Amino acid sequence: MLKDLVKNLEPSSTLKINEISNELQNKGQNIIRFGFGQSPFQVPKDIVNELKNNAHQNTYLSMQGLKELREVVAKYTSNKKKYNYQSENVIIGPGSKELMFLLHVIFDGEIILPTPSWVSYAPQAILGRNKIQNLKTKRENNWFPTAEDLEKIIKKNTNKNYLLFLNSPNNPSGQVCKNLNEISDVANKYNLIILSDEIYSELTFEDDYKSISDFCPEKTIISTGLSKWCGAGGWRLGYFIVPDSLKLIKDTINVLASETFSAVSAPIQYAAIQAYDKDHTDFINASRNILKSVGKYVYKNLSSNKVLINEPQGGFYLMPEFVTKKFKSSSEMCKNILKKTGVALLPGSDFGFDKERLIVRLSFTDFNGQNFMDEIKDEHNVSEELIKKFAPKIVEGVDKLKKWSKTL
Ligand code: GLU
Questions:
Q1: CB atoms within 10 A of CB 208
Q2: CATH architecture, domain defined by 4-43+281-405
Q3: For the segment 64-80, what is each residue's pLDDT rounded down to a tens digit?
Q4: Coil, helix or strand at residue 362
Q5: Is the per-residue pLDDT at 380 higher than 80?
Q6: How far apart are the first and last CA of the chain?
Q7: Residue 316: CB within 6 Å of ligand 1?
Q8: Phi and psi torsions of 220, nearest 5°
Q9: What is the largest CA-CA distance in the chain?
Q10: Which residue has its alpha carbon closest to ligand 1 atom 2?
Q11: From the CB of 123, is ligand 1 less than 6 Å away?
């Protein structure tokens, strides 16, 4: 009774590892939750209050999203980028994930996915029935594609439409893309549009975040939302910003929105106005500061000649590669690590790597961010002492992984 298309699809590994970790913890096991990628921080109080104040909002809102929210999102984005976006360019969705899915459904062409890529891009591309072109990347290129490799794929058939998924800071590698200029040259030369997944952009560890939309705005759809910077993953509010040149895409996503989720929850949209209209720089800076320090701690203490890692540059993740021949696949290795140490991780194969490559994603978010933030306030240097005090599970998980890696 099922279509062939869906028969081999499995539940998303990110959500699955979250549930497995919950189950094991409920059974009383000591689990270090390095699997799921969820903000350790709480939603800022003023935004929570706006949600409370708007609990009575009960009407369906416009399918493209509440106009006032789209206006503040357009203003917030235009202030950060070199492009003047208007409310008409913004589509509000129940998480950017759903909007990406609708994009896959409407797009006719090939989907270019750099390896590694976030776990849901490929299954969504399959559901959208477009061919996937995997684009291998290298550690020395920050795990991002080179323009040359990108061009090679497109040159095979320049008559087709191409959609490249570019995610910086990256999930799972934690790296920031540095060669945006050359990638934009390729986009400008061919029928290539880019879905720029910028969900971690506020959490870039240095101040110089650049988006591919700064280089080729007419070819770029920006995708982001509340989940990561605002600690509001469970609120499910994301958005696309689509330039006028891609209006047809925006209008068609709107049609699909109206035929599927209708409109995003009204109280959440009203509350989100506060998130983008008011200044939350202090909250964002404190979050970044803590994440940067915790990420660096994991990087410094776990790296060895048996564990290769690129230092994280933004977001929640880093990607250790274990130099061993002990396991046949990264998922077998993750199962062994979970059994032996209680550390939950995700295998590189979920992110597009060959299963034999013994690489994993580690999410360094298993700590109470609120307590941490209350303590550091304006301090810029998050000492190792503070990490030990406020992120004990991180320290414990790193110790356990380190010991485990010595047995290889
Ligand atoms: N983006 C998060 C992750 O990669 C979790 C949310 C999700 O996958 O839907 O772990």
A1: 6
A2: Alpha-Beta Complex (3.90)
A3: 999 999 999 999 999 99
A4: strand
A5: no
A6: 46
A7: no
A8: -120, 130
A9: 59
A10: 37
A11: no
- In degrees, rounded to 5, the angle at the alpha carbon of residue 27 between the alpha carbons of residues 22 and 32 is 50
Name the residue of 119, 237, 346 whose CB sits within 8 Å of the most ligand 1 atoms, as the mutation to test its pocket: 119
pLDDT of residue 343: 97
Which pair of tokens denotes residue 245?
Answer: 């040149």
**114 has a pLDDT exceeding 70:** yes
Task: For residue 145, say if its preceding peptide bond is cis, omega within 30 degrees of 0.
Answer: no
Task: Output the CA torsion 198→247→131→157 (10° steps).
Answer: -110
The 3-state DSSP class for residue 296 equals helix
Q: Is the pLDDT of residue 406 over 70?
A: yes
What's the CATH code, domain 45-277? 3.40.640.10
Ligand 1 near 18 CB (within 6 A): no
110 CB contacts (<8 Å, ≥6 apart)?
A: 130, 131, 132, 133, 153, 160, 161, 162, 163
Q: Contact 76/243 with Cβ under 8 angstroms?
A: no
Nearest Cα residue to atom 7 of ligand 1? 14
The answer, yes or no, to whether residue 188 has pLDDT greater than 80, is: yes
Nearest CA owner, ligand 1 atom 10: 37
Q: Is the CB of 12 under 6 A from ligand 1?
A: yes
Domain boundaries of the chain, sorted by first residue = 4-43+281-405, 45-277
DSSP symbols for 57-124? --S---TT--HHHHHHHHHHHHHHSSS---GGGEEEESSHHHHHHHHHHH--SEEEEEES--TTHHHH
Classify residue 82 as exposed, middle or buried by CB count within 10 Å of its CB (0-12, 13-18, 19+). Answer: exposed
Gyration radius (Cα) of the chain, Å: 21
Residue pointed to by tokens 């209050």: 49
172 lines ligand 1 (CB under 6 A): no
Q: Which residues pair with 90 in a beta bridge?
A: 241
